[in-house]
Amino acid sequence: MRFSQALVLSLLAASTLVVAQDDEPRSGGLLIGARNVGIGFGHVDAITGLRINWSDDGFDYVNGMNFTLWKPATGPIDGRINGLALGLLAAAADEINGLSLSPGAVIAGSGINGISVGGLAVVSQGSLNGFNLGGLAVVGQGDVWGFSLGGLAIVSQRSLTGISIGGLASVAQRDISGISIGGLATVAQGELTGLTMSGLGTVAQGSMTGISVSGLAVVTQKDLTGLSMSLLATVAQGDIKGINIAGVAVVGTGGVIGATFGGVAIVSTGPIAGVNITAGQLSSETSVTGLNIGLYKIDSRSISGLNAGLIWTESSSLSGLSISGYNRTRGLQRGIVIGLLNHAEDLLGVQFGVLNVVESNPAWARYLPLMNVRF
Prior knowledge:
Distance between the termini: 61 Å
Shape: rod-shaped
Radius of gyration: 32 Å
Helix content: under 10%
Strand content: over 45%
């Protein structure tokens, strides 16, 4: 999160610079109208209509259109704009509701609601709700909700919800929900839900649910559920459930359940179940169940189903059909095995191969060519 924190601090510092530099003391304004309704020039504290000011300072509200020529005056950002907020340098208020536009930045203290477009950035020290477009970034210290597009990044120090597109990254210190796209990375310190795409990495410290696509890796510290695709690796410290495709490896600390395709390896400390295909090694510390293809090796305490390990299949218990160059079962082998060398401690089924070994058979039948049987 160092990138997001640095970006937040730099953009907030820039917005603070806009607010904090010295200005001329506030002077009175001219209201053409009556009872706070009409056209205001200069500092008109409260108005419904059109307000044009050089620099905003300590106003109450504007219902209508507020047009500011320069930066806000010294002091905290205050005032509420309901309607259209325009600023040549910055459109700024404590709260902006409606349409806000500026070639520089759109800045708010407590929140922005509506459509906000900043040539450089859209920044809120509170929440952002609606359509947010920042040339460099869209940053909210609160929740960011709706459609957000940032040339470099979309950053929320709380949750990010809706459609978020960051040229480099989409980052939230809590959850990300919806469609999130980061040129380099999409990162959530909480849960990540929906469609997520990134050039390098899609990362969640909470669970990840939905469709996750990454140029290099999809990584979560909890469960991964849905469809995940990566050129390098898909990694979860919890369970992996669904369809998972990785150019190199799919790794789950919990179980791997569903349809899993790993270029070099599928590895889990928990059970692997479903359709599992890899050009390398398929390995589980507990069990492998279903249609299992490991062109190099299938290795687990328990293997059941249809298994094809081009070179080697090894287990303590095997059930079903196994086809491999070398089938090694250190316990009971149930079903049919086909290979060059088949070796089981005990057998309930048939072995077909060049040499078939069943340790529990009588001495004359322990080592047999072509076929060995025990029921």
